[in-house]
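Have a close read of this protein, sequence plus structure tokens, and explain what the tokens say about the fold. Thanks in advance:
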Amino acid sequence: MLATTKPVSNPPTPPLFSSVSKHSQIISINRRNLLASLSLTLAPFLTFDEFKNHSQYAHARGLFQMPPVRLVNRHYLISVLCLLLLGVEKCDLDLWVVCLYRYYLVRAGESQYEGLGIINTNPVAKTSVDNGLSEKGIKQTVRAALELKSIGACESNCWIWPSITQRAYQAAEIIASINGISRSYIVPEYSFLDARGLGAYEGKKLDSVSEVYASDSLSPNIKPPPVSDGTPNESVQDVFVRVTQLMSILETQYSGNTVVIVSPDSDNLSVLQAGMVGLELRRHMDLAFGPGEVRLVDASCIPAYKQPASAVYKCFNPPNCT
């Protein structure tokens, strides 16, 4: 017969202070009081316009917001927090920037299909050996891994998030090996980092992708023509939804950690970077990645605006524009 034990109740939580003088009163601190006190503390540093501009974030709900509040306004907020916590003399803004926001975006090296000049985006074949790195792609990826090492991206360890697509996962393994990262820190992504599906362009020559980008520049909602072989036909907005979901996961589970995102194509990364720095999505091609390219996400990397020839298309709420 099994012995039963009487459940033990948890001891009461001790008060914040052990004693109270007759001239003072202890007020319990909860999350709401803490946030209220912080808002009052920061209020002298904020102008009315800044309050007004931040109201859109205060009411936002749902997934990770693009562009992230902490990236867009990081220089201002970091300055305020640093002054409050450390004082002027001890405030190292560069250190705060690095500690608060470290996402490295890496495009895998050239694939065997890309080496042949053929578009291949059907996810059915993404784990095929034929979708792996070409000889040239391996060299490009090694250079990317060495670049990450030279800039100290993974000095204090990092997480590597590659697409499960063959060439991206191969690239992740090369990056981990050269940077001394355990394979247990490679987290394969099964869907949110798939190469952008180009529909009826599947199997066509690689240079025909310029036609897709011409449509992208008109609207992020235009899809490539569909095809019946199972290849998705994704608009820029479709890709944006995927990478936003990816960032929601990363910000929830790995906030504060260095993350290296490895994509099989450029569009995932250019759309992601456009969203994160507040560039309208129609212009994501301005941020195109070459095979084996490495970037640290930074708000200062927004390229100069190129006015459309018609001067008709304007964006007042980037990256969400039509």
In short: The mean pLDDT is 77. The radius of gyration is 24 Å. The longest helix spans residues 236-253.
